[in-house]
């Protein structure tokens, strides 16, 4: 633990002082002399530190050599999408994200310039930042509404961070509750802090639920958020819905998704109303980052990797949709405009190049990052209702979405919960239809492999889908949903600094099985 926390021992101040932010609504430049006690002692000071944490969720700040594929939340979503079957990276390009796509990063655990360290460091940075603020729970000065708002956001950030650690450094929740996950810290840490052992998956999820429920409670009694990058109660409900879906707690997932829809005030939008997915002011956006031109991280950014027209990484390593997934949309589905079947980057044996994510200004590389849309909540409500046998309710929530996507889509005849052994095995069930729409609607926004894991399905890649031969994962156990391909290794630096962990017994398997 010590080596990682040497990087973040400055506490939240390190995040808060990331360069280049001049947005008055998202001020992130406290003084060097801010102490941890100062952060937790006053809500006005704590909100500045929170702003710094939010800035780090879209800024490129990986500590060593990995910045061009480490730009906060979107980089991990892109990583997890490329680990599945629906998003194709058509070529290696400069190499960024290619090794995620090929599952060739686990053995790089000794390096601080690769994915194991990058993710572990990132989420524990946010955990510690939240802990710095939460140390003031019960003593923080300020109006009751502001204190509740600040603490509620910090609890949500900690819940989100542990959820992502659990998603990436352990097997999925259901059926693996007693397996090792990650250490739990609920107090601020520094280089002298004694490292903790790995908690079980169940213990980590217990902490996640405690934090997110406390967040919902406090945010319901707090002041209104001042910036869409801040987590409000609707976003906390959205995170609870995501967490419960992974835990297969269908009732909680349904209730949380409905609460997220109701409290957000957001509505499902037609595709042309949020074209490019680059504007957090769209009526369906629950949470995201408004990024001005002077805050753009240019090459080290999501749009650099997605928008072909920028002439950056996306031009040499185009992101494409699988032909199989594209074929699940009828000709009348408005989302077909998100992919270009005639793009110059396409070949007869490739997928279709994406047009879903476009920079709002190719000269300045501008474009907001969208982290949660209300459409996802309708899909969660539909899936949870279907799982509970409430098919009429599931039909309604699916109809809410498809009414803005494809009016010809057959809903009323769909029934059942059967899923195939792999994602290519078709059953025709209602649940499969809901998952299909989730795959299409959230392509590039959620992280496909996390769904594959929780659904306990295997997957295959084929050249007929449009995958390049080098990325077919031939001989790898992708059809086995219990494999360890999807479980990241713990960085060596954690073992070097944490005497409570033994690399011989606590390291995740280096192989696939």
Helix-strand blueprint:
Layout: H1 2-8, H2 12-16, H3 36-41, H4 43-56, H5 73-82, E1 87-89, H6 98-101, H7 115-134, H8 144-169, H9 201-219, H10 233-247, H11 250-264, E2 285-289, H12 302-306, H13 313-316, E3 319-321, H14 323-327, E4 339-340, E5 352-354, E6 369-373, H15 374-387, H16 391-402, H17 430-441, H18 448-455, H19 492-497, H20 503-506
Antiparallel strand pairs: 1-3, 2-6, 3-5, 4-5
Family: Belongs to the SusD family.
Keywords: Cell outer membrane, Membrane, Signal
Domain SusD-like N-terminal: 103-245
Write out key terms for the chains shown:
mainly alpha; two-stranded antiparallel ribbon; 6 strands; disordered N terminus; four-stranded antiparallel beta sheet; 513 residues; 20 helices; Serine Threonine Protein Phosphatase 5, Tetratricopeptide repeat
